């Protein structure tokens, strides 16, 4: 369990139960699949999405079994998208551990991701209202479209802030929104309050992803627990580069003519992005989303979990760069 939960014993205990639900729900005859999913469950993720479900559930009539089951669904949806991402990216490691596709092969990884999605909708069918299942399905469609947009935009030099924001809205923010929304909606919160949680999740998710993208230009392996500049190497142009290139596209033109970046190219691009204040501008936009999230959190009904959500958001979004 990530150390972020050490200050929140009640949520930590609930998340341990969520892990048990995931393990129980993914038991199957094929032990290779079952064991690979156990590896995913215990791979060291922060479990933010299930925690968001639990937090917002406490603003309504809290049903422990229902809330934890829905929390398990959100985490397994996230896991499934990661498995498929790693296949597309041919990633060998995630969180310092071998990815499913590198350990078991791409064919098995595809089916493991698909199996996780099936488990999710099986649980939803027994726990969630028909209207919220429809919302879940629409969200998954938007998440998949966000990933497709990212794939199709590799090495695309037609840079646009609007298209980037649309991409991360689907790729990252959507599941943050859904997690906070579904917990509130399924615990009987009003439509207005549930929608407020959706907006909170959107703003947290947008800020979170923008901050994560800046770390590609200023982070180290130790500070971000992944290889820096990985997006650049794959031709994924994120907000810091977009801002810098819009300011001085001429400096980037020699690189935009390529469909592969050498180690030297990557270093040059990082230098140019920082020279043209791309990181600073991206951080400024992340701060705007962060302020929107806190403004919405501050207007939530008084509840002990309001403080938890605020503190958690601070830990995620107010980082040392």
Shape: globular
Task: Report the order of strands and helices.
Answer: HHHHEEHHHHHHHHHHHH
Number of helices: 16
**Category by helix and strand content:** mainly alpha
- Major pleated sheet: 2 strands, antiparallel
In percent, how helical is the residue content?
Answer: over 70%
Number of strands: 2
Instruction: Kindly provide the radius of gyration, computed on alpha-carbon positions and rounded to a whole number of angstroms.
Output: 20 Å
Give the strand line-up of the largest sheet: 1-2
Task: Describe this protein's structure.
This protein is mainly alpha-helical and 321 residues long. Helices cover 75% and strands 1% of the residues. It has helices spanning 9-25, 31-41, 48-57, 64-89, 100-104, 106-127, 130-152, 161-186, 191-218, 221-224, 230-233, 239-247, 249-256, 263-275, 278-298, 304-317; strands spanning 93-94, 97-98. It has a two-stranded antiparallel sheet with strand order 1-2. A hairpin with a 2-residue loop joins strand 1 and strand 2. Helix 12 (239-247) crosses helix 15 (278-298). The longest helix is centred in the middle third of the chain and has 28 residues, at 191-218. It is globular and about 60 Å long. The two termini are 25 Å apart.
Entry summary:
The chain has helices spanning 9-25, 31-41, 48-57, 64-89, 100-104, 106-127, 130-152, 161-186, 191-218, 221-224, 230-233, 239-247, 249-256, 263-275, 278-298, 304-317; strands at 93-94, 97-98.
């Amino acid at each position: 369990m990530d150390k972020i939960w050490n200050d929140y014993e009640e949520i930590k205990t609930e998340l341990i139960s969520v892990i048990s639900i995931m393990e129980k729900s993914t038991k199957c005859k094929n032990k290779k699949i079952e064991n690979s999913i156990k590896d995913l469950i215990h791979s060291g993720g922060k479990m933010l999405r299930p925690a968001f479900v639990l937090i917002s559930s406490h603003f309504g009539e809290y049903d422990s079994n229902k809330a934890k089951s829905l929390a398990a669904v959100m985490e397994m949806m996230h896991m499934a998208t990661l498995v498929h991402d790693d296949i597309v990216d041919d990633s060998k490691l995630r969180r310092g551990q071998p990815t499913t596709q590198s350990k078991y092969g791409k064919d098995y990884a595809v089916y493991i991701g698909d199996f996780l999605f099936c488990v999710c909708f099986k649980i939803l069918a027994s726990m969630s209202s028909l209207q919220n299942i429809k919302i879940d399905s629409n969200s998954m469609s938007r998440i998949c479209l966000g990933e497709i947009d990212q794939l199709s935009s590799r090495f695309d030099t037609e840079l646009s802030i609007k298209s980037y924001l649309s991409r991360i809205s689907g790729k990252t923010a959507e599941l943050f929104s859904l997690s906070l929304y579904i917990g509130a909606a399924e615990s009987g919160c009003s439509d207005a309050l549930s929608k407020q949680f959706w907006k909170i999740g959107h703003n947290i998710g947008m800020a979170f992803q923008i901050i994560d993208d800046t770390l590609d230009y200023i982070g180290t392996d130790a500070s971000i627990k992944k290889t820096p500049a990985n997006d650049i190497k794959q031709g994924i142009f994120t907000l810091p580069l977009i801002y810098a290139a819009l300011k001085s596209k001429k400096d980037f033109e020699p690189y935009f003519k390529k469909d592969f970046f050498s180690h030297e190219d990557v270093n040059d691009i990082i230098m140019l992005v920082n020279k043209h204040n791309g990181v600073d501008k991206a951080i400024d936009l992340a701060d705007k989303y962060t302020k929107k999230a806190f403004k919405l959190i501050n207007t939530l009904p008084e509840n002990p979990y309001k403080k938890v959500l605020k503190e958690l958001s601070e830990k995620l979004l107010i980082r040392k760069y």
